[in-house]
Design a protein that fits this description.
The protein is an alpha/beta fold and about 575 residues long. The chain has 20 helices and eleven strands. It folds into two domains: about 290 residues, 3-Layer(aba) Sandwich (Aminopeptidase); about 210 residues, no CATH class. An eight-stranded mixed β-sheet has the order 2-3-5-4-6-9-7-8, sandwiched between helices. A three-stranded antiparallel β-sheet has the order 1-11-10. Strand 2 and strand 3 form a beta hairpin. Helix 7 crosses helix 16.
Length: about 575
Amino acid sequence: MDARQRRNVRAVLACIPALWILSPLAGFRQEPPPLSSGPLSFDAARAHRMIREFVTQYPKRVFGSFESRHSTGYLQEKLESLGYELEYAQFNGRIAGRQKVGRNVLGYKSGDSDEIIALVAHYDTASTTVQGSMKNGSGVGVLLEIARILASEPADRSILIVFSDGGEWGMLGAADLAAGYAVRGRIAAVLTLDGVAVGDLASLSLEETGLLRGFTPPWYRMLARSAAAQQGLPVLSASGFEEHIARTFYMPRSDQGPFLNSGIAAVNLGSRSADRNRERAVFHSPMDTIDNLETAGIEKFGLAAERIVRSLDALPAIPQESMDSFRLWRELYLGPKTVLALHGLIILPPLLCLFYCLRNHRRRLNPAAIARELLAFTATYIPFLFIYFLIGLFRVLRKLPVYPLYPATAKDPVLCSPSWGPVAGIAGIAAVVAGLCILFYMYPLRDHPKPDFNVSKPVLICVMLIAAVLALFHNSYWAVSFLTLPCWIWGLTGPGDGWNKRLRHWAWIAAAGIPYFIVPWFLAARNGIDTSLVWYQVLALNTGLFSAAGYFLAAATAALGIRFLTIQLHQTG
């Protein structure tokens, strides 16, 4: 491209961020639905006693264990004494390759309407903890107290109390309920509780991310925020960049995830401690005991939960809103069509680059030259494909632990002590395949003319546009997170005539991959994965938490980056 063409592409590049900055002008304000103004009855001292009783009698409620199953008798007794119709739901899950059986405990109370409000708290613990008071004995005790309050009062909607199992292993119980509950079509809204943080509370928090898809609709987000804010604590809720990252991966940490995936409005109420270091140390550790919980914190959490439930029950009708609206800040949202249009702008610069490349060099684009570059890209892409299929092979050979969707839960020995042997084996075989691909590509072409930069570049831009469009349909947030810089930088990178120029171009091409390093490390820190990030990614691919489509798109982008680096060595003619 000449200087004028580059200026045109840069002008388009400058316009896109400007449109993103101006996008709030196309937004809409979501007013919170009316809240219930009735008195609250939550008894924190009673809830604290039930938490203590439950976690001390059943301190090791690990999914599939005898003690976990035994603890459901306690929950059954409580619900039956309150007059709820009791039901058990059993389901299977594979933990480190071993089949386990879980059990949900459900209590049902009919209301004036067939619509159901479901209240959920998981009762199982991580294998690394004792008592699991914060995670999630506290949610169990709070839910038992709310169940007691609702049992003695008439309700406009029916109430479903759920103590779910397998919450620490990818929300297994909630997923089973969302997929298999006989009358799940009647569930209008779900509130999950997980859980009361240690010591004094600094804030309440809402988690609104669906499992692989879905997000809490605006009306419910605003209702929950408004109701929780009445306790005088800040209410943390995703917006802006934080929500963008959450929607990039759709990796929830609480039971609302599977319900949102099924299209049911859901939100999780959680909390943050004033002492974050202590909270991190207690999380999934033997220190997570009842002595860390304060009655004052339980009270604020319980009152917020009760207000949300009462407000849901008092609504004249449950709103039917899209889960795809994006929250910019406070009450300001962007609609789904606006979001998709803004995300789609990322392909405009490479489209313009492709137009100029074709106009300037169309005479060089003969079938043989195009086929050569496509063959080179394929040879670069194949080793990445082998990595994915090798992970599947190692799973079949039982060299990798098998989990249902989510890898081992945080602080589990499987995550903290990675098996580097299988990882090294996968990397080694992929390296051999890469070497063979290079030989099979280069040997037949050794007597052919040298490849032409001005042919290779438009071919690669075409492949990049195809990958970008597929990514926008797969998950437009993922596309923006990982493909924006490649789309904007690689198309503008000219030929490397001279080593100084090549080095500068290589630096720019490599810089486009920065999100591939920053975002995973951000997630690793958020989930306490630390140095086991590579191992976690292998397990996530092995279980399906990271989808095949997402991996193939990421691998295609990586292969494109390698090819853009390589063609800097091509002649320009």
